[in-house]
Each structure stands twice: as C-alpha cells, then as structure tokens.
Amino acid sequence: MDVSDQLGRPLHDLRISVTDRCNFRCVYCMPKEVFGPSFAFLPRAELLTFEEITRLARIFAGLGVHKLRITGGEPLVRKNVESLVESLAAIPGIDDLAMTTNGALLTAARAEALKDAGLRRITISLDSLDNQVFQSINDVGFPVEKVLQAVENAAQAGLNPVKINMVVKRGVNDQDILPMAEYFRGTGHILRFIEYMDVGTANGWRLDDVVPAADILARVGAQWPLEPVTPDRPGDVARRFRYRDGEGEIGMISSVSQPFCQYCSRARLSPEGQLYLCLFGQTGYDLRRLLREGATDQKIEDAVRSVWSGRRVRYSEERSQATPRPKVEMFRIGG
Ligand code: SAM
Ligand code: SF4
Ligand code: SF4
After folding, report:
1. Which residue has the higher pLDDT, 335 or 69?
2. Would you list the DSSP string of 256-292?
3. What integer is the mean pLDDT of 254-266?
4. 313: Cβ below 6 Å to ligand 3?
5. Most buried of 40, 111, 176, 182, CB within 10 angstroms?
6. How confident is the model at residue 314, as a pLDDT?
7. What values do phi and psi take at 63, rounded to 5?
8. Ligand 1 centre distance from Cα of residue 317 (Å)
9. In terms of CATH architecture, what is 13-333?
10. Domain spans in the chain, listed from the N-terminal domain onward
C-alpha cells in the first residue's frame, strides 16, 4: 500500500547510488584535496549487493515507487551494473528506469548492453564544450569529445531522448551556456541547466556562485525564443521550455532559486544501504542492517513506511533560514 509523509508527499521515486567511487574529481562534487589517494572509500563488503538492492527496490515498489534512477559516484565503475539493470527492470510496478552517468565509460557496446538489459533513459553530465574548462572541472583531464561520443552512443542504442546535465557555476562555466544550447539544439537531446547546489560540505559553496535559472533562461531565450512546456507531472524537478522555432527543448533545475520540495517524492539509497529522505540529509536510516540481520520483507517494508511517514524535510525551501550543519556528500547519494 502507498505511503505519504507528514506534508502529504507520496513516495514515488527511488535514487539508488551503487558506488561511492568515481573516475572524475569534479571540483564541485569530489574535490581532489578531499578525495585524494588516501581517501577511504567503502570496502566492497560494505556495499549492498545487487541482490540486496533488487530486494529493497521490490519492497519500495510495493510502497508506491514506480521510478528508479541508478546513480553514484559513477555508476558505470561498478562492475556488471547491467545485471542490476536487468533485475530492476523486471520488478512489477517499475515503469521508469534511468541512469545518471558522466559518460566516461559509456562505449557503444555498453550503451547497447544497458538498453538491452532494460534501461529506459539516460542522463549524461557535461558542463562545457571547451576542453580547458571541462578538464578544469572534471580535474582528471577527461576530454569533451569522449563525452559527446557517449551521448551519441546512448542515442544510437535507442536511449532517446538523451538528457544532458550541465551544472552552471558563476565564473567557471556560465560563458558556456549559449554554446551548449546551440550545440544541442536540433539534435533531439535535451539539455538541462542545473543551479549549482550546496550539497555536502566539501565544495565550499557560496550563494554568489549560483547563476539563477531565470538568468540562464533569459540568456538562452534572448538568442532563441522559448516557451514553457506543461510538465508531465507536478513533481518533475525540471521545468521544461521549448524553442519556438521547433528545434527542441531545454530544462531548468532551479533547486536553489525556486525550490520544489513541496512535490518531492524522492527517496535515496546510499551504496551501503542507508535510506535518505532528502538530498541534503544529515543521517540515513540503516536498511542494510535489517537486510543482514535477516529481517523479513514485511519488517523492512514497515520500517520504510514508518520512516517515510515521519518525513517533514524540505531543505531547499528552508535554506535561507538554515543554520550551517553537516550534510551527506553528493557522491554518496548521487544527486
Ligand atoms: N557521476 C554521475 C554524473 O556525474 O553524472 C552521477 C552522479 S552525480 C553526483 C549526479 C549529478 O549531480 C551530475 O549531473 C552532477 O553534475 C550533479 N552535481 C554534482 N554536484 C553538484 C552540485 N554541487 N550542484 C549541482 N549539481 C551537482
Ligand atoms: Fe563523479 Fe559525478 Fe561527482 Fe563528477 S559529479 S565527481 S562525475 S560523481
Ligand atoms: Fe526534496 Fe530535499 Fe531537494 Fe527539497 S531539498 S526537493 S526535500 S531532496
């Protein structure tokens, strides 16, 4: 039976972070100074197995979840993640299965394997078309061309429309807003601009670094007029706009300037099986302990129901009043 929280928000989406590791060191997510060679990532035994993840996802589906997104860290660094996709796709009630990736490992063969396993949609992150800028962001020297190739690999495999996530940080890549829009216009891919968020504590976020979605929209719209598209669902995090000349659409994820907590129906599962009720969560609820203590499905379902029923969090709507506090890092719960 479906479950709602204290603000009447149902539980519809689950984001599953399958690893805390990543082959990039994006400065706004896993800055090298913090996530250097001596950083202790989770040992393998601490990670949920694919069987454990699938079991949890099935239980969540029983509570009303119909949309799953596999993320990380970088989900494609987890070995044989295709087999997890296959098990998740087979869960009754799951009608949408997506992945967010940096694309570095998304070869044509891998994209096809993911599609064949049952992946429906893919989002590929790319913050600039300028190699110097992109490499200064990913901080491992990864070239733009390879990510663009990954986008094409995904499209060729039939994972359409491919979404592209661009996190905009003032003074870092805001000059790339128009070139990115121009590049993806008319391709069928959907570029989504994301306001730089104060997730975690490692990235030293400042409000001044955020370019508000309204500014981005004005800049793109001045060049190529736009009109709003009615959202598919009220809970959609991206506001959609289409080019009036028919060259496709873009999305705006304005979690800082226009929070959407009111509709947030999303839970997050960390690689080690902690359940988080918000991207800005402080602590998780330990589902792995229940799994490994031999709890029945019913017991786990009751626990999730009770945690979700007590949920009140709406961090982004309260951000301006919030006192600074420790928060979970993005690479643990996957955005
Ligand atoms: N590694 C994969 C990737 O980069 O696509 C998946 C995980 S990543 C944490 C998920 C998304 O969060 C990416 O699109 C990334 O750009 C975005 N992200 C990371 N840190 C962010 C921040 N501080 N503000 C806004 N978006 C952020
Ligand atoms: Fe890795 Fe994605 Fe974070 Fe970049 S945003 S460091 S690719 S997890
Ligand atoms: Fe949901 Fe938390 Fe983001 Fe608000 S701040 S939309 S509650 S994840």
Report:
1. 69
2. TTS--GGG--EEEE-TTSEEESSTT-S--EEHHHHHH
3. 89
4. yes
5. 111
6. 87
7. -100, 5
8. 20
9. Alpha-Beta Barrel (3.20)
10. 13-333
